[in-house]
Structure formats: structure tokens, C-alpha cells
Amino acid sequence: MARQVQGANLLFKAVEVLDAVAEAQAPPRLAELARSTGLPLGTLHRITDALAASGLLRRDAETRAFRLGSHLLQLARRSWEDFDLRGAAEPEMRQLHETFSETVSLAVLLDGGVVLIDKIEGTNALRTAPPLGQRLPLHASAIGKTVLAALEPAEKVKALAALDLVPLTPTTIADRATLAAHLAMMEARRYAVEDEEQVVGVRAVAAAILNQRGAPIGAIGLSGSAKGLSLDRLFDIGSEIAEAALRISWNLGFAPPEPWPGFSIAARSGDPVENAVPAAAFVGTSPVWDEATARLFWVDRMRPGVHVSDPATGADTTLPLPGPAGSVVRTPDGLLATLRPDVLALDQKTGATRPLFSLMTPDSHQRYNTARCDRQGRLWITTMDLTISRASGSLVRVDPDLRATEMATGFLVPIGLTWSPCGRYLYICDAPRREIYRYAFDEAAGTIADRRVFARLPEQSGRPTGLAVDRSGFVWSLQTDGWCVTRYDPDGQIERVVALPVPKPIDCCFGGPDMRTLFITTSRLGLAERRLAQVPWSGSVLAYECPEPGLPAGVFGEATPACAA
Predict the structure, then answer these.
(1) How far is CA 212 from CA 79, 151, 152, 215, in A?
(2) Of 231, 398, 469, 514, which residue is least crowded by CB atoms under 10 Å?
(3) Which string of DSSP letters, residue by residue, matches 448-479?
(4) CATH numeric code, 2-70
């Protein structure tokens, strides 16, 4: 439409030349501009001379190649000065820089892309942020991905379909389905990570800045060298970046709608859900019931230690660990805890730990997720990519003699292991794909086969995470960001949905005196303080009395009796 403006053809050709120079991988010469624009050399000479005279282009005296001129930056800066984002973000950028000593960047959403408009370089000699004014790849940069994740669902689908998923490095996400699942997890976390996906040797984390309507208008990010910015540190910084972005958004007038759409009924549910263990876990997970002591073991994935809880009184103590654990399971004389890269044996009486085995190296991009034992005493562990950028998650069986066998792979976030009471099926979720799978299980041999989709959650209904099976073979599935737990019959049909007073239930197990209590660990990660006031049980362990009892947890190295059902 713009090119129909009368008498403006030369102006549009000049803009086309500027675009060609800006998008070229290396400063182009006149002949290269002629090829990329299709303009005659004579016309190009006149246009480039005029642009150079006005400071919009500059030409290298030796190579005769063209670069963008400094006057463009002056115009851009004047435009940005009128835009309140820089002023609102400046205090947060300085605070992040002082705290972490890494490069802090600010970008704005412009014409369907993100453009870097401000930065404070880190103390490291390596420059990890692109030049000001550069457009960042939406699929390969933390800033681009966090803006994509914050889009409305329909806009996100449209933006994903239009992306050219060019693999800039060996770790760039170049698969549309994987990127969509990755963005769903980033949206739940409120920040995105970049693991050498745009530039080899550089990692970054970013969070979206929202306007009054809750739509993304830009992002704030932090970047550093991969050597100095480990993946573990990157995730630790992520929550700080998310809070900084939220404060900037508030300064710009963002106010989340009240109450949370569609979920206000959850807090008033008539289902008998109780707060069994008041706590403030960031990501409570891996609950295991010990019948002998009537205690519940569980872990907070963001903090070191194994929680030992008494649901009857709400009392909670912690056994120390050298780092945060992904899961905990029982052994005949203690516990096992999965810490990256080792699986540790933990003595409950002395608190002593020792490495038992490892499925990964210290510099691996993997971490442990869910661990459960079957009735034969075999340990089943899932692993996953730290950044959820690759479908490299696996299901591994570890026999009592510590032999490890990979049983399945290709997961994004494998979670929620459980078995049917008859021992014929193994169930597992892949959370970002919103699918629960059922494998045929040979209990004697410890093998799986014939994977089928048992249930698939619809869009905007959360993601399946924790799983437990009752004695009738019904599967209980938690829906993180879905405020509920769903009970499926053995054919995968929904039998009931129990509303929960928290948005992020994570994992579950059966326990209690008669094994009818479903204990549910929850998360408060990604919830702003004002949201936590509305859902105060987030981070606690909830309890729901079920119509059917469940089965005792398996014990590593010890066979348990088969179910009589």
C-alpha cells in the first residue's frame, strides 16, 4: 500500500537500500547491493551518494563496502527518548548490573520483531550483547523467546507459523513443535533462557515487559559467557529478571486482571482439600509416603534438603543435602536423592550422604526429574534438558545392582511415573506436550513397549505433571497451571475433576493410615507476591481424601507384594 504513494518511489528505493545494508551478513559492496535489491547500478549510485551525504550510510574507504550511518542511531535514540520504556527500565537495569556484573540489555517489540535499544556492558572482556539497534532472532534469543511466550495464544500461533527457524548454532531450536512446547514452559516460569543458541559461548536469560493490557512491548535480559554463566546460575538469576520485568511493567501501568479468569471457583471448591503441611516451597515435588513412620518425604527442587513431614500435625523438618534434589525414593535402610550429576544415598539417622551412581557428567546439559521404584525394587529415573530446548529427555531403569538401561527417549519434560495395580502398564507424562502416555509393562522383565497416548489435555487447561494410580486402576493426574487434579478411568476417560485452591500442583502420591489420602505438592515459582496473597497455600502440601485407596511406594532394592485387586 505504501508504495502507491505518488512521487515517493525514490524514497522507497532508498529505504530498500538501507534495509539491504542492515540485513546483510557482512557489509555489502555496490555490486552486492545491486543483486540483493535488483536496482540498476546508476540508480544505486545516486541513492547511496545521497544517503551517505545525509549520514544514513557510510562507505569504507578501503573495502568500498557500505555500513549504516551514525545519523540513523541519532534518529533512533530520539525516537526511543519519546518512548517511556527506557526511562522505566533504567533503574532496574542498573540494579541487575550491580548485582550480577553481567551485561544487561533492553529491547523493544517493533514491527513484529525485537530490537535492542539499550544495554550496560558487563565487567567481562567478552561482549555478549549485540550492537544497539540490532534486530534479535525471535527463536534463538532469550529476549525474542520471552516476548513470543508472552503473546496472546492466537498471536503466538501466528508468530510461530511465520518464523524462519534458521539454526544459528548447533543448539538453536529449529523445530516448530519443540519451540512451541519450550515457550509454554517459559511462559509458566515467566522468563526465557538462551543456551548458546544465538552465539556459541554466550548464555542469556530474559523476561517480557508488558503494557497496560498485558501485551508484551519489550524485554529485559542478562547475558554472559557460557564459562562464567553456568546453567544453574542462569536459572537462579531468572527469577530476579522476571521480578525486574514485572516492576517495569507496573511502572508502565500494567495491572493483572482480577480475579484470575476462570479459576476463582477453585478457592471456593466444595471438595475436601486441606493444607496438610504448610510450607513455602518454590517447586515442591516427589512426595513419598512411609507407612512405618507415617511420614511424608518430599523435596523442593529449588532448595537443598529432603523434607520429612507429619501430615497429622503439619510438622515439617529437613534432612540436609549438598544441593537441590529432583526426587527422593526410599531404600530398605534410608533414602536416595537425585542431585545433578549424582544419585546420593542418604542416611536418615546421621544425615550422611554418599554418591551411589551417576547417569550424567558434571558438565552435562541434563538434569534428573522424576524418580520412582517399581514393585520389583527397580529404580526408574527420568532425565531432561536443562533449558527444555531439546527433546533429549530419557526414561532410565536402574537395577538393584546399579546397572542402568535407557528404556525410552525423545521427551521434553518427562514426569509423573506410576504403574497400574495389575503391573501391566507404566504411565508417564510429557508436560509441555500435554500428553500422558501408557506403555505395556512386563513386570518380571522390567521392559516397556507399545507406547500409546492415554490422555491429552486441551489447550489452556494446564500441563499434566504428577501421577498416581488407585487400587481400581484409575489414574490421578495433576494439572499444573490448571488448578485441578483429574481422575481418569482405565480407558483414559475423565471420571472426575477436583478443583484445587492453587494454580500449580506439581506431584502426588497416596498415603495416610488407610492409603486413601492423595498428598499433593505444589509450587509458588513464577507467582508474584500480590498473586501469592490470593493463593496462600501455594508451596504447601495439600491433602485430598479419595474414594479408593492407592498403593504403597516401591522401595529401591526390595520387592513388594503384588496387589490383590
Answers:
(1) 21, 14, 14, 7
(2) 514
(3) EEEEEEEEEPPTTS-EEEEEEEBTTSPEEEEE
(4) 1.10.10.10
